[in-house]
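User: Here's a chain of 723 residues. Predict its fold as tokens.
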Amino acid sequence: MYEGLPERSRAEVKEIVREAEKLLTAARAVREDHARACAQVREAIEPLRQEAARRELERIPAARLKDVTEGRLRLGALEQAGYRTVRQVLDAGPYGLQQVPGIGPQTALQAHAAAEQIARAVRETVAVRIDIDRQDDPAMTALVVALHRLVTAGPRLPRAVRAAASAEETLAHSLPAARTLAGRLRRLLAGRARREEARRALAAIEGVLAWARGEDAATWFAQTSVDLLRPPVPGIEAWTGYEHDAPAYHGLLVEIAGMEPDRASSEGFLPDEIAERVKAQPLDETHLKVSLRGYQAFGARFALAQRRAILGDEMGLGKTVQAIAALAHLRAEGRTHFMVACPASVLVNWLREIEQRSTLRPVRVHGPDRADALEDWTARGGVAVTTIDGLHALPVPERAPLGMLVVDEAHYVKNPQARRSRAVAAWARRTDRVLFLTGTPMENRVGEFRALVAHLQPDLVERIDDSAGAAGPQAFRRAVGPAYLRRNQEDVLTELPDLTWIDEWEDFTAQDRAAYREAVASGNFMAMRRAAFCHPGRSAKLERLRELVGEAADNGAKVVVFSYFREVLDIVQRTLGPDALGPLTGSLPAARRQRLVDDFAARDGHAVLLSQIQAGGVGLNLQAASVVIICEPQVKPGTEQQAVARAHRMGQVRKVQVHRLLSTEGVDVRMLEILRRKSDLFDAYARRSHVAESTPEAVDVSEASLARRIVEDEQRRLAGDAA
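Assistant: Prediction complete.
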């Protein structure tokens, strides 16, 4: 016996080798078929990349050629001859440039070489996007068709490719040595060292085969190859698949085209030592039904590596699936019980996401049956989902080993004295892993962010003081790096369609002005904000809203209308008629809210959904909408961004237009002036920015103080007008 390894007969060795050779063939086929499918995508990308590069070169002025030649190139004659862009210089070629009076052969060659250099740089960096409005374009359709094959192979495809690569590496290395034991003559002629090497190789092969039998890898690999070798589908079928699962197409496109965000962006600009620890954290995706984007996998690893942390990604980046991925990893490690606390508006969405994106068992612990549900969860395990406000009513079970607590929209627990905050703290003490999710953890002041961190890493709170904030956002991010990760859409979602903000300025009608003056006189700030909607049929804002909805209907576009005020939405609904769905309000049960969103998405062509911005701006996915109308500016700068991000998010396939209705006189103008400063400071601390020399206290503009300031200003202004 050599090194404790069992002796195998030649017949046993031959059978092992034969089985291993079949598995190796299947593994190689998977990798080759996958490589071939990816190559077809790259081939389809190339003409679109060239087209995008040419559009970009058309926007680059010819004067930039001097930058490439360090100012040595004289371009006066070219510019006088009408060569305004780098693309024009590139298309002319050296010979064409020589025909320009005053341009000699040497200058022509240098100018064209400089244009080529810029063109190469542009081609390497330009982003290719899928444009659903170009379904008649053969090049765009070819890309969607090529991606369709990979998408329909399913979310297990990446794992199959990784498993095949691992099996191939071991088998290809071990089989030549193991064959020494399969032949009588080779076994006899081999020396002791070679036989020991062969025995170790055989043991490695048996390990791979044992794994393959447990996973039924041979069948898995064979089915994967079948999926990858299917003939291309018609373009219309591929486009339909894209509309139903755009994130999967976008994710593959970014990966295959090499358009991943830069490392610092995808890692949230964390300190290097933390980023390295996060990347070293394993992530077991066995219980996931979806593939993660690179930045999403990093977010899940961050939650696992840091154990008690805040994931503060901007709306639309998939915080929910990152949290589910962390739970799935812990389940693979043997943890069985998890708790999610979320706003009531997204409870149903959480239950759906857990079921659709993982093999974890969701348990609704909310409503009249919550006691029985809690007992069932305690006995059988799974992911309990309840509301933040209802968490206090659930006794923390001693016999349920809590694997992780997830709190969605965690800025709701920023007040440590609130009942909901105390309940979260009690549950957080029962586990060593807590994950807070929030897109706006620093909405008002650093002190509130400090309160969130106190739930997670109390020792870190002492480092989050005013001096860290006053030193600028970069110093602040370094200070909170152990507990906080944030990425923004523009940093990591290169494939998002364009987002256009349009401020729709409207003059008061006589009725609007009268209602506004009455509200100012009474000091009623809320009445001032909704004065422009007080008179159906005689409001300039309402008339503009009707025009925008009509234009969207002509184009078959879906519209979501946001307002802070239920009264405004009621007026809009009476104006638009019964076909306008909603309104979606905070008083609606969570299941009813989700049904409204589902009905909105399921309608063919044009549809309108009305929503209070506080309800529709949190937790719900509204990417069926490509037109967003906001009826009035909001007090908190993050509220509008959150609402818009429900439509302009991963999965959106159309360009999104945001129309904000504003009055040219009165409260809207004053609100925008005051909030602009607040928004800048919020961006500096909650987002990546280079704005500095601002203290954290300057970020705070409470609703009460803002309302008081505006009311007083407007009363003085109108009194002056009257005088």
